[in-house]
């Protein structure tokens, strides 16, 4: 029994040692971590609650609710967020989870598309993504995604803006260091949409990316731009296997 | 109607201390911030929170501009008898929201 435990501990420590990737959660103060750990405290749960109600609400010309086609989200949506962005034949390219939701809203419900970053879309996205909480990020191996993902990696390493900085210079080379008062995380998209204390609200990965892009004094890509989706694709690959924390809290 | 989350036990023993945790969606706009157009965003705060246990006030709080958006308020009370806890948030622009939760005391 003791040797079995010892072996388990050795394997666990080896596993932790070989993977140097850390979620942004590990860089937060214990106080902020406590908010994320406890659903009763996590303000993002307000959006999840709204998303849960929207899941069952009939809408659009078709008068259908998400639940009418998909059934209970706890089973049908489990693991879905872990594999987005994914290739969409109709769009002939990669689409994000929020674009996938909007495709359903327009195509199946016959309703007007939800605006990017709108509270309604964030609510549905956080509710759907939370069904994958605890599951590893599993980017699809679809060969059609490869050129997009490669462009995303190129953009990740490309210096941009008046500050002439690439994502990699901060988040690969200087992760764990400080940018003014804030710790630079490794930029793994493990918990989106996130409740960011700075925003005092919920926001998507694209909002976070746009914040960084304008931070280096470059002109941000607009919501839904293929460049942002490509970046998301690369980030998902980079974080493959890390556990989803949605809805996460970040400073 | 704002979204609100109340976390508390459904049942308790008589005399037991129960922890009640509340969260409500609200911008808590301080009135000191400028919007994108440079104009001050009008103040929009929750001013008062109260909890009544079968009509008796057991907890209340006043909220001010320094309180963050989506305020989280937690407190304890003693379970005396089965009854309804009534939570009320009141604020600027005529904001008022009431939620009821039943506590069964065995």
Summed up, the helix count of chain B is 0
Task: Spell out the CATH superfamily of the largest domain in chain A.
Answer: Cytochrome c-like domain
CATH topology of the largest domain in chain A: Cytochrome Bc1 Complex, Chain D, domain 2
The total of beta strands of chain A comes to 7
Pair with the biggest interface: A-B, 12 and 14 residues
Quick gist of this model?
The complex is a heterodimer of chains A (251) and B (106). By secondary structure, chain A is mainly alpha-helical.
Task: Describe what you observe in this structure.
The complex is a heterodimer of chains A (about 250) and B (about 110). Chain A is mainly alpha-helical and about 250 residues long. Chain A folds into 2 domains: about 45-130, Orthogonal Bundle (Cytochrome Bc1 Complex, Chain D, domain 2), CATH 1.10.760; about 140-250, Cytochrome Bc1 Complex, Chain D, domain 2 (Orthogonal Bundle). Chain A contains 11 helices and 7 strands. Chain A has helices spanning about 1-20, 30-35, 45-55, 65-70, 75, 95-105, 120-130, 145-155, 165-170, 205-215, 225-240, and strands at about 85-90, 95, 180, 180-185, 195, 200-205, 250. Chain B is mainly β and about 110 residues long. Helices cover about 0% and strands about 55% of the residues of chain B. Chain B is built from no helices and 8 strands. In chain B, a hairpin with a 2-residue loop joins strand 4 (about 45-55) and strand 5. The model of chain B has no long low-confidence stretch (mean pLDDT about 95). Classes of the chains: A mainly alpha (about 250), B mainly beta (about 110). The interface between A and B is medium-sized, with 12 and 14 residues.
Task: Jot down its keywords.
heterodimer; A: 251 residues; mainly alpha; Cytochrome Bc1 Complex, Chain D, domain 2; 2 domains; three-stranded mixed beta sheet; 7 strands; B: 106 residues; mainly beta; Immunoglobulin-like; five-stranded mixed beta sheet; three-stranded antiparallel beta sheet; 0% helix; elongated
């Amino acid at each position: 029994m003791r040797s079995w435990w010892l072996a388990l501990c050795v394997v666990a420590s080896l596993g932790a040692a070989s993977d140097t990737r850390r979620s942004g959660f590990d860089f937060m103060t214990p106080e902020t971590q406590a908010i994320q750990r406890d659903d009763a405290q996590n303000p993002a749960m307000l959006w999840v609650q709204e998303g849960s109600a929207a899941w069952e609400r009939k809408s659009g010309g078709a008068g259908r609710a998400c639940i009418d086609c998909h059934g209970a989200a706890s089973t049908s949506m489990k693991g879905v967020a872990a594999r987005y962005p994914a290739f969409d034949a109709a769009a002939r390219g990669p689409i994000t989870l929020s674009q996938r939701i909007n495709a359903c809203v327009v195509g199946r419900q016959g309703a007007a598309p939800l605006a990017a970053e709108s509270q309604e879309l964030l609510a549905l996205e956080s509710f759907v993504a939370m069904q994958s909480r605890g599951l590893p990020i599993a980017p699809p191996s679809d060969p059609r995604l490869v050129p997009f993902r490669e462009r995303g990696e190129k953009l990740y390493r490309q210096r941009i803006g008046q500050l002439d900085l690439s994502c990699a210079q901060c988040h690969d080379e200087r992760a764990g260091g400080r940018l003014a008062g804030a710790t630079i995380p490794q930029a793994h998209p493990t918990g989106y949409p996130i409740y960011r204390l700075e925003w005092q609200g919920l926001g998507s990965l694209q909002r976070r990316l746009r914040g960084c892009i304008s931070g280096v004094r470059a002109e941000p890509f607009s919501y839904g731009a293929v460049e942002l989706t490509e970046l998301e694709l690369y980030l998902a690959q980079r974080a493959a296997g890390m556990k989803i924390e949605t809805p996460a809290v970040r400073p | 109607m704002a979204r609100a989350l109340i976390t508390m036990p459904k049942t308790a023993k008589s005399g037991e201390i129960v922890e009640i945790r509340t969260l409500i969606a609200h911008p808590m706009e301080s009135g000191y911030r400028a919007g994108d157009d440079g104009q001050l965003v009008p103040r929009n705060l929750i001013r008062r929170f109260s909890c009544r246990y079968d009509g008796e006030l057991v907890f209340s709080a006043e909220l001010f501009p320094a309180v963050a958006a989506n305020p989280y308020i937690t407190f304890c009370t003693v379970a005396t008898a089965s009854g309804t806890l009534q939570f009320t948030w009141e604020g600027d622009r005529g904001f008022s929201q009431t939620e009821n939760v039943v506590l069964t005391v065995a």
